[in-house]
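Hi P.,

Sorry for the delay on this. The queue was packed all week, but I finally got your sequence through. Input first:
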Amino acid sequence: MTKGRWILLIVGIVILGFSIAIMSANREGRAAEIGNELIETTEVLPENEGKLVIVSGIPTLSDGGVIADKEAGLQVENAVYYSRVPYQKVYEEEERKVIVDEGEDKYSPVDDVVEYEYYVVKTWIPASADREAVIVNSGTKYENPPAVNMKSLYASGALSIGGFRVSPADVSDYLVREERGFTPDELLESCGEYVRNSGIDFWVDENQYGDGMLSNGDDIGSVHVVFSYETLEGAKPVTVIGRQRGNQLVLEEDGPVSEAEQVQAGLISKEQFLASITAEDASSRTIGVVGIVLGAVLSVLAVGGEKLLSAIKRPAGKVRR
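Then the structure:
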């Protein structure tokens, strides 16, 4: 068999295998199987514990969206997310590409001769993060300060659809949010104990957005503590399919409903959802059938194509004896 026929055979086998996989993944009974298990509801009922449920509605914040940062003495309302992050200024080594020779073709970088040069910058990283203790660059030694043992805090508000709690991360694309910070006066009023416990000589400063932050300078080793939160300004209707775990709606990484199907825009009933996956699966099966036929044809041509071509080229009326 020639090299070309081997390539044809391999392509045919790949298409055949891929098409069979599509057919297997989108078997005709998938919608029926999901339909037998799926329960449409907005209520948390004990008999549905551990079962697959479909819930539609507009996400709302539970408990007024109150998030409390007791350590810093701060509290926010109507909040989807809250964060407190200490940053420290350190040295980091970065690289950049330098063109040594542009080559013969001045309009194309293909034949350029390049080198990489390394340089040191001052940058802000999380205060407790690892960093190189010493960086030596071009004969100069840069010593980094030790990490500061100050914790970050990330918190999210509880969202509800009907009686179910859902993770804001699962429906974030359907939320209208506004990022906010604290004024310097708010930090002065609330963060006194946090500053005293830190052991750092902080004062209240403004960040690049004009919001208040804690700072002890702008030199290497200095620390900034940045506060921010996001309020919920609105939400769009959404449908979520997941397991009922207590009053939580939990999405599955490996379940009968694919990740792409678990969260969808709009108010979708169980019947509409099953109809949509039935149509999608039918399209996939059609693609699978076409692929199987194409893969089989290519494989046959690769293996027996020479005889077939000879038969086609043979002059009409002549019979080999």
